[in-house]
């Protein structure tokens, strides 16, 4: 049994170790190789730009010879490389696997379907490629002896990066947040989102948003976007403020321990998935919540 991990993280290396056998990691600079020494049996350093999916897929295809399973993160680049690699090595691709095991010459996995409302069990023959969403597996990869080697690719990549523009980013890690205050179209203007940030601050949480706020209105960066095409989160408390609760959004929050909603429309779909709901104008109740919670915390 041999597993290749592309764009390796501690979580992916742990998942690879649970499959048994040899773990090989593909990295793209010496610093990455040094960071995972002792967590993979072999580390291969490829001389390609990690931002170019076709170049990464070509490098991974060379390293994947004789490999049974290839694991990648469920990021935009990870999924793109996964598709390209699966095509190149003639393997099946499983996206967003929430559990993985090898049995009887096949990779068996579970993944959410139908907007996270059902779990599908998938079985594909080896070799296989799978992407894993962050935060699904908890554990430490076992300590092992590591050998490091270099991979030199002679062919030029089919694509190149012409320019890079910095995108506005905040210190947002919604996947790790225990409390999320999420905003939707119930907010009338961008400046009003400050109320949500103040509420998140007194609660000790972070701010998320529905698709229209990030994708259409662009009031917040994509890092705040929660939903099927955004971040899938599982906080202890998810507070949806002014969010109607369309299926695409609900798919990203179903694993929350508690879902609470504030909406002035009693028929809003969000209430069907909420543990607690308040039918009220957010402009009335959010300032009250900020005031009450601040007093309770002595802020």
TrEMBL record:
Keywords in alphabetical order: Flavoprotein, Transport
Keyword Flavoprotein: yes
Gene Ontology annotations of biological process type: fatty acid beta-oxidation using acyl-CoA dehydrogenase
Top-level taxon of origin: Archaea
InterPro entries for the chain: DHS-like_NAD/FAD-binding_dom, ETF_a/b_N, ETF_a/FixB, ETF_asu_C, Rossmann-like_a/b/a_fold
Domain Electron transfer flavoprotein alpha/beta-subunit N-terminal: 3-165
Record-level Gene Ontology MF annotations: electron transfer activity; flavin adenine dinucleotide binding
Signal peptide (residue range): none
Similarity field: Belongs to the ETF alpha-subunit/FixB family.
Protein name according to UniProt: Electron transfer flavoprotein, alpha subunit
Organism lineage string: Archaea, Thermoproteota, Thermoprotei, Thermoproteales, Thermoproteaceae
């Amino acid at each position: 049994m041999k597993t290749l991990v592309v764009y390796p993280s501690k979580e992916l290396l742990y998942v690879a170790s649970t499959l048994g056998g040899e773990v090989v990691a593909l990295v793209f600079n010496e610093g990455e190789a040094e960071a995972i020494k002792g967590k993979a049996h072999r580390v291969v350093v490829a001389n390609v730009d990690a931002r170019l999916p076709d170049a990464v897929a070509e490098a991974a295809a060379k390293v994947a010879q004789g490999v049974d399973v290839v694991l990648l993160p469920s990021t935009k680049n990870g999924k793109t490389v996964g598709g390209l690699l699966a095509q190149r090595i003639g393997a099946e691709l499983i996206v967003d696997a929430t559990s993985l095991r090898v049995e009887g010459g096949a990779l068996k996995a579970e993944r959410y379907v139908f907007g996270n409302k059902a779990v599908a069990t998938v079985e594909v023959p080896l070799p296989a490629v799978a992407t894993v969403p962050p935060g699904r597996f908890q554990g430490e990869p076992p300590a092992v002896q590591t050998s490091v080697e270099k991979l030199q690719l002679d062919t030029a990549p089919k694509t190149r990066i012409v320019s890079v523009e910095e995108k506005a980013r905040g210190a947002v890690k919604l996947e790790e947040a225990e409390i999320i205050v999420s905003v939707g179209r119930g907010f009338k203007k961008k400046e009003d989102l400050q109320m949500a940030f103040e509420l998140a601050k007194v609660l000790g949480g972070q701010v998320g948003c529905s698709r229209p706020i990030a994708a259409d209105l662009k009031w917040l960066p994509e890092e705040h976007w929660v939903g099927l095409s955004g971040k899938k989160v599982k906080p202890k408390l998810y507070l949806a403020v002014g969010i109607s609760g369309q299926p695409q959004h609900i798919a990203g929050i179903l694993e929350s321990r508690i879902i609470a909603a504030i909406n002035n429309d009693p028929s809003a779909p969000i209430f069907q998935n909420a543990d607690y709901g308040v039918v009220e104008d957010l402009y009335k109740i959010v300032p009250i919540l900020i005031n009450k919670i601040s007093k309770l915390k002595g802020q």
